Amino acid sequence: MLSSSSRLLRVLSLLQTRSHWAGPELAERLEVHPRTLRRDIDRLRQLGYPIHASSGVAGGYAFRAGQSLPPLLLDDEEALAVAIALQIAAAGTVSGVEESSLRALVKLEQVMPTRLRRRTHALRSAIVPVQRMGPTIDAGVLATLATACRDQLQVGFSYRDLRGQASVRQVQPHGLVHTGNHWYLVAWDPARDDWRTFRIDRVQGTPGTGTHFAPRPPPAGDLRAYVTGAMAGVHQQGDQARVVLHQPREVMAKTIPPSAATLEAIDDAHCLMLCGAGQLDSLVYWLMALDVDFDVLEPPVLKERLRRASERVGRSLARGGG
Questions:
Q1: What is the CATH number of the domain that holds 262?
Q2: What φ, ψ does residue 296 adopt, rounded to 5°?
Q3: Structure pTM?
Q4: Are residues 211 and 247 in the same domain?
Q5: How many structural domains compose the chain?
Q6: What is the CATH number of the domain that holds 31?
Q7: Within this chain, do residues 116 and 59 fall inside the same structural domain, yes or no?
Q8: Cis upstream peptide for 34 (omega within 30°)
Q9: SS (HEC) of 244-286
Q10: Average pLDDT over residues 31-55
Q11: Which of 39, 105, 120, 194 has an alpha carbon 20 to 30 Å from 175's alpha carbon atom?
Q12: Paired strand residues for 172
C-alpha cells in the first residue's frame, strides 16, 4: 500500500485523467477503503485543491474550477505564461513535445478559476504563431477533441476529405497523434463499424460533444503505429510520385515523417520514396530542401517542374554573377 503522501499524489493524478470518478472505483484503483479515500479527499481540499463530491448511485469525485489555483507554486501571471507556452508547443513549434504539451494544457485549464481561464483564452486568440510548414490548427478545436478523448465523450463534426467531399461524422474519439506537420484524431466510427483517422485541419467548425462511450483497445496496439500504417496506405493511392533518394532508408527516416511519404530500402545506399503527387510545386520545394541527390522515376511532369526550377535558379545566379 502506498504511503499517505504518495497516495495523495496518486489521487491527484487519477482525478486529472477523467472528468468524474465514481467513489468505489477510485477507492478500488487506489486499493484503499472508501473511508480512507474520503479522508484523503478532505486533506487535499485543505491544501486548496478544488475537488467536488457528489452523492447517490452515480456519486463520486471530480475537479471543479476553484476560486484560486491549486498550490502549484504558480501565480496568475505564471499560470498564464505556462498555458501560452504549452499552446505554442502543442502547435508543433517544439518538435517531440506536441502531445504531452496538449495533455498538460488540458490539465492546467481544467483547474483554472473562471477569471483566469477567460484571460488565457483571450491571449490565445490574439497570438499569431510564426508560419511553419503544414496547415494551421485551431487550438480550440484541438482542445475540444483532447477533452473528448480524455472524458470518453462522442463527438460530431463536419469533415472535408482529401478529395474535398464534405460529410458529417459522429465518432468515438480515442486519441490525438501528431506526426510530420499534421494532427490526427483516431476514433471508432460506429456508422462504419471500424477505426478511422481524421486530419484535424480538415475538421470544419467546432466539434460538438455527446454521450459517454466505452473505450476500445487501441488499433494495432498503439495509436501512433495505427496512424503510421494508415498514412502508408494513403501514399499508395491516387497520383503518386516515386523518387530514388541517394541515402539509406534509416538516414532519410529521420527527416521524412511517415505522414509525408513511405520509404522503402533499395540497398545500403539508396531508398525509394513514395508520396502523393497532387501538389507538385510543394514536392519540388521539398525535394530540393532534402539536400540529397535523387532520381525521379515518376511522374514525368515532376521532372519537368524540377527542370524549370533549376533553370530559374540558374538565371538568378547568372544575374547575380554567381
A1: 3.30.70.250
A2: -85, 120
A3: 0.53
A4: no
A5: 4
A6: 1.10.10.10
A7: no
A8: no
A9: EECCCHHHHCCCCCCCCCEEEEEECCEEEEEEECCCHHHHHHH
A10: 90
A11: 120
A12: 188
